[in-house]
Q: What sequence folds into this?
């Protein structure tokens, strides 16, 4: 590490210590930073458990029955991804519907029914890594894997022709992520199937135009992946794939889909992982200055690179004050148009805000099955009205959070970048 980088790291440590000693403005012990409290009005909202948001009730609405199938005896499955194209067009990736268990109410999520446990996306008798596992006695079905909701949470579109793709092999567990490039005027839809090691690119109306990877084949090559997880783009269409649960790399491709390069490896010393060493490369985001922020989930840290894979920085996503037995599972992150990084953590059930130097600025959230609480923010997105949408994968539910009027704007997640026209 260069002298300049060492100096910067030292300054970040000093900065972090200073933040630990002095509560940020607007938090407990600090001066109000915004909202009515800053103008002398009483502000009684507490940032627990839903932070500066109110959860929108009855969102989404139950899916309608049609001529092909009905939902009698079935409910929501595990949600992999959610992407807000606009407040009136929310794309959803669900890993199959699950059968209601005895005592469950129609359209009750598995997380809200304590006896059902997590919303399992895997085939019965198969683990998340396609190995034999104990049977549970029930199976999910691939229906409504990809669908679209409006602002009221009503179904406005669905892609049933994709369901057979996700059930092509028994160890598949459905879509992991759904996104659009912010720079693509044609708004192609990208869907990642981590368990079957493929990335699909569709036209806006659902026609398949590109497939990365070989179905069911694990590997590290120009066209093989090991459970890929996410994708991010540069303005010219160059893109990067985080690869992934099994892989230990970031792969770079041209706008036409040609492999350019990759970087990353497994740790040499598992107890002391260094730069460019990964353990579950779970999500990736690119800042305005073309810097790549890669969530190294297994090491609970962020690694930072330039667009050519040169290592720049890394910082922990955990606090030095946490006890050693505090588990983490950082599941996703995005950079808003204000330049802040928002990260979802499953075990602490919080949404965390960082600046691009790794300073923790704010967090909110609490565990539980009640509406507004969190149990795995696997999909995170915002719309142009700064509503926040979370795909709560373990709980088996989607949640929409609307900003509380008058809330401190620094505690509200900003917009994701979009340079394409509205629908």
A:
């Amino acid at each position: 590490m260069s002298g300049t980088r060492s100096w910067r790291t030292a300054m970040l440590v000093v900065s972090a210590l200073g933040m630990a000693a002095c509560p940020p403005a607007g938090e407990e012990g600090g001066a109000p930073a915004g909202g009515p409290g800053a103008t002398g009005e009483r502000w009684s909202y507490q940032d627990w458990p839903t932070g500066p948001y109110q959860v929108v009730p009855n969102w989404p609405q139950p899916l309608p029955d049609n001529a092909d199938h009905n939902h009698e005896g079935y409910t929501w499955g595990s949600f992999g991804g959610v992407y807000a194209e606009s407040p009136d067009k929310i794309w959803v990736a669900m890993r199959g519907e699950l059968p209601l268990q005895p005592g469950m109410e129609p359209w009750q999520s598995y997380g809200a029914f304590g006896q059902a446990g997590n919303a399992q996306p895997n085939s019965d008798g198969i683990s998340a890594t396609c190995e034999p596992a104990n049977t549970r006695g029930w199976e999910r079905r691939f229906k409504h894997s990809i669908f679209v909701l409006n602002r009221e949470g009503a179904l406005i579109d669905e892609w049933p022709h994709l369901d057979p793709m996700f059930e092509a092999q028994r160890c598949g567990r459905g879509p992991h992520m759904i996104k659009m490039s912010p720079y693509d005027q044609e708004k192609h839809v990208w869907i990642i199937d981590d368990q079957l090691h493929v990335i699909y690119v569709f036209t806006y109306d659902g026609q398949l135009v590109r497939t990365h990877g070989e179905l069911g084949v694990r590997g590290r090559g120009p066209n093989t992946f090991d459970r890929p997880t996410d994708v991010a783009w540069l303005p010219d269409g160059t893109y990067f794939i985080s690869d992934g649960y099994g892989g230990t790399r970031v792969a770079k491709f041209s706008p036409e889909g040609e492999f350019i390069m990759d970087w990353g490896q497994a740790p040499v010393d598992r107890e002391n992982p260094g730069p460019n060493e990964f353990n579950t490369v779970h999500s990736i985001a690119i800042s305005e200055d073309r810097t790549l922020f890669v969530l190294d989930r297994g090491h609970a840290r962020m690694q930072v690179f330039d667009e050519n894979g040169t290592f720049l920085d890394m910082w922990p996503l955990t606090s030095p004050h946490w006890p050693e037995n505090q588990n983490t599972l950082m599941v996703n992150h995005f950079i808003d148009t204000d330049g802040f990084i928002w990260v979802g953590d499953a075990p602490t059930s919080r949404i965390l805000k960082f600046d691009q130097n790794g300073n923790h600025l704010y967090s909110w959230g609490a565990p539980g099955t009640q509406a507004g609480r969190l149990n795995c923010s696997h999909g995170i997105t915002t719309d142009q009205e700064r509503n926040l949408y979370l795909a709560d994968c373990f709980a088996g539910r989607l949640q929409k959070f609307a900003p509380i009027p008058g809330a401190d704007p620094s505690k509200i997640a900003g917009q994701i970048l979009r340079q394409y026209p509205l629908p």
The first strand starts at residue 53 and ends at 55. The longest helix spans residues 3-21.
